[in-house]
TrEMBL record:
Xref: PANTHER family: GDSL LIPASE_ACYLHYDROLASE, PUTATIVE (AFU_ORTHOLOGUE AFUA_2G00510)-RELATED (PTHR22835:SF659), ZINC FINGER FYVE DOMAIN CONTAINING PROTEIN (PTHR22835)
InterPro entries tied to this protein: GDSL, SGNH_hydro_sf, SGNH_plant_lipase-like
Domain of life where this protein originates: Eukaryota
Residues spanning the signal sequence: 1-20
Protein name in UniProt: GDSL esterase lipase
Length: 389
């Protein structure tokens, strides 16, 4: 048995190396769902699960982008087996998990001093909107805007950094030809800026066409710099977030999905965004036939968590916050005692929850989401299989 596990370890390690050979770097753009340290606000318990300290990640541990780039150590998994032979199946599962990812280090935030960006960088910022601040100023929505990091601002930063990584424009085109870019999720903060200012969903819905257009423009700029392999995540079903469920709580059962308990009108906003985003990607693909532009269906994954949380091991469900305080209904979210604030507490086991703090997810949820991008079906073709071609 030990011998067979050892050979499995070797084979899986070999698979992991071969699947990583296509990509020499990973670059990420987005907001708090993927910021790895450009904005560091919260203290512990943020970062408690993996890093043991706050890193700027809005979770108890790693994010989806962390699992896309790297994976748990195969050596650690093998040691688990050696110390507990009776748990060989459990250890073998962890060996399989260790074969995931594209074999690159955790992404340094692009604002990090003395960081090595030759294998990638992260341009995502907490609270980043897709659109520039002027769009919101013109609509009387200046309150709450504080991080000027629109998609074009992030691409500007990327373009400025590139020469220090790869040299001349042609050398950078060659370099980006072997890099993976994840662009998004974008849009959540654009819509929340309106919603949190008491604008109704119908008005905020008018933001969707310019948001999807801006994402497409950002993609075209990246393609112009040499990007050939791009993942574009969908907008999450925000109507399933404990924050939204608390803020917009109603007594009308028709406002909630019968199978999920999520808010219908807010999920409809996300659905509309994703429909227009898909149309933009469909428009770009024939225009750039040599570029792989793949949609990552964030929405479907998280919605499935809400439909059947036990399928994924989330015995405390998808709508209850792990780090928070009692508030409306059973969501464990309270605006006056948010995660890391006085009055809040952390659940005994974050792995049984989807939601970490009411708007961001747990490391356990991020790991499962990354599985769906690396191996399908939520990115088609999947990242790992496509990198073997």
């Amino acid at each position: 048995m030990k011998l067979s596990i050892f050979f499995s370890f070797v084979l899986i390690s070999s698979f992991h190396l071969s699947s990583a050979q296509r990509y020499n770097a990973l670059f990420n753009f987005g907001d708090s769902l993927s910021d790895t340290g450009n904005v560091v606000l919260a203290g512990l318990p943020y970062g408690m699960t993996f890093f043991g300290r706050p890193t700027g990640r809005c979770s108890d541990g790693r994010l989806v982008i962390d699992f896309i780039g790297t994976a748990p150590s195969t050596l650690s998994a093998f040691c688990v087996y050696r110390s507990a032979p009776e748990s060989c199946c459990f250890s073998f599962y962890h060996l399989l998990v260790a074969a995931e990812g594209i074999g690159l280090p955790h992404l340094p935030p692009n604002t990090a001093k003395d960081a090595d960006f030759h294998q990638g960088a992260n341009f995502a910022f907490i609270a980043a909107t897709t659109l520039p601040f002027d769009f919101f100023h013109q609509r009387g929505l200046s309150k709450g805007l504080w991080v000027n990091a629109s998609i074009h601002e992030q691409v500007d930063r990327f373009e400025k950094l590139l020469p220090s990584i790869c040299g001349t424009p042609q050398e950078c085109r060659d370099f980006l030809g072997k890099s993976l870019l994840v662009v998004g999720e974008f849009g959540g903060n654009d819509y929340s800026t309106g919603l949190f200012a008491s604008r109704n969903v119908s008005e905020v819905r008018t933001f969707v066409p310019p948001v999807s257009q801006a994402i497409a423009e950002g993609l075209e700029r990246l393609i112009g710099l040499g990007a050939v392999d791009i993942i574009v995540p969908a907008l999450l079903p925000v109507g399933c977030f404990p924050l939204y469920l608390t803020l917009y709580n109603t007594s009308d059962p028709e406002d909630y999905g019968p199978g999920t308990g999520c808010m219908r009108r807010h999920n409809a906003l996300s659905w509309y965004h994703n429909t227009l985003l898909r149309r933009q990607l469909d428009r770009l693909r024939p225009k750039y036939p040599a570029v792989s532009i793949r949609f990552a269906d964030f929405y479907a994954q998280v919605f499935d968590f809400a439909i059947n949380p036990l399928k994924y091991g989330f015995k405390d469900g998808a709508l209850r916050t792990c780090c928070g305080a009692p508030g409306v209904r059973n969501y464990n979210f309270n605006l006056h005692a948010k995660c890391d604030q006085n009055g809040s507490s952390v659940c005994p086991d974050p792995t049984t929850h989807v939601s970490w703090d009411g708007i961001h997810m747990t490391e356990a949820a991020h790991r499962i989401i990354a599985q769906g991008w690396l191996h399908g079906p939520y990115v088609d073709p999947p990242i790992v299989s496509s990198s073997d071609d």
